[in-house]
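Hello again,

I reread your note about wanting to compare the complex against the isolated chains. To keep things tidy I'm splitting this into two emails, and this first one only covers the full assembly. Below are the input lines as submitted, including protein chains and any nucleic acid or small-molecule components. They are followed by the predicted structure of everything together. The single-chain runs will come separately.
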Amino acid sequence: MHNPQLNRNGELIHLLSIDGLPPLVITQILDTAASFMEVSARDVKKVPLLRGKSVFNLFFENSTRTRTTFEIASKRLSADVINLDINRSSTAKGETLLDTIDNLCAMHANLFVVRHASSGAPYLIAEHLQRIGRDDVHVVNAGDGRHAHPTQGLLDMYTIRHYKQDFTRLRVAIVGDILHSRVARSDIEALTTLGVPEVRAIGPETLLPKHLDKFGVAVFHDMNEGIRDCDVIIMLRLQNERMAGALLPSAGEYFRHYGLTPEKLALARPDAIVMHPGPMNRGVEIHSAVADGPQAVILPQVTFGIAVRMAVMSIVAGN
Amino acid sequence: MPPLPSPLPDVEIQCRQLADLIRPHLDRQPALIGIFSGGAWIAGRLKELLGLPEDIGLIDVSFYRDDYAAKGLHPRVKPTVIPFEVEGRHLILVDDVVYTGRTTRAALNELFDYGRPASVALAVLADRGGRQLPIGAAYCVWNVALGDGESLELCRLDDGRLAWRLENA
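Full-complex prediction:
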């Protein structure tokens, strides 16, 4: 199968999804991120790798946190960062996505960080760049539709490895709206690639995709049952717009069944870690006592995320 | 410059010779920083031989290399660890071989992101000439000529001892 993320030598030139990444490439990203953690702890939080390079943040969909962490990561690599306000730009005037890309290439862009509501938009850009012979320009997917959010998946793997070291003995539960979650999809792909023997999906039937078992994922509708003896619990944000539809009765009802409370957490292993990609809804998917408790690693995830994005950008831009 | 001897010199003896060169200057209380991977091993051995109480620094120059644009990021980057204040210290940067001087340049740039040292001296086991930058080793125990495709690699054996290996490109 054609995999536009890798060049002929199997090196990473774009990061579009976890799907199709060899385990060695994932491990290389995580190892490199460990070195960037040290850079972020210095007084001078900067290395010269991307000096003189231009990183364009193209966020066709709103996201303050992901955009900010990519911006920080770019600046710590010494790149120049340009944030495009897409809603007010040419796209709003009718310019096509690929025309926008061509224009930015004419401004000597080196790397695009792309978030788009349509699944596959970053692929479209990567394939376009290949077609026009711009193998010096790279694409990093910062979330496309329901498809993938690979840097979140990678930072989640970094977090798990940091606290649990070995992937091959873990029981990992992902809880919530897995159907609409690109984070869940990227996490499942990464966990499977890295050899996690037991991945569980927990949520109401209306929020779980069909055929999860084909990916080796065990499905639970009862959270007390699903969370039992887990080493890692990944909570997903319940998007407010789901409440408006017929998928869920109410936020209170959801919290009763699928909110992570101290009582439910007690069913997991005593050293289990609790993760959340943010922003979290306290009292909807997670109880404050858990979010602020000793097992939560939600803020370290944010710190790791910058190092992981530095690793991804410096690897793709160098290949 | 003398040609390559056979067999290659004993690394432990060379480390002792290097320690003997550094010992007269210990009154400045220098801190050792080894460049991954060979330099880090040698710096660790020098610390023992010189009886220095302080942990050594370890530096990986991958983020500062000047060939990133041509070669990309090294696939196995190690975290740099500098467990002491660089500001105002006399530093001894330790590497196995000095050649073009570009690795030393990258290490200097990285060190200065930690602070302004009082001085930096370079200590190496081997100097093979071929410098492309104005860099010299203050402490060196072996001057050796190598062919263009040849390189000297320091490796650590299973029993922990260090040994030279000649590589041909």
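For quick reference: Chain A has two domains: 23-148+303-318, 150-297.

B.
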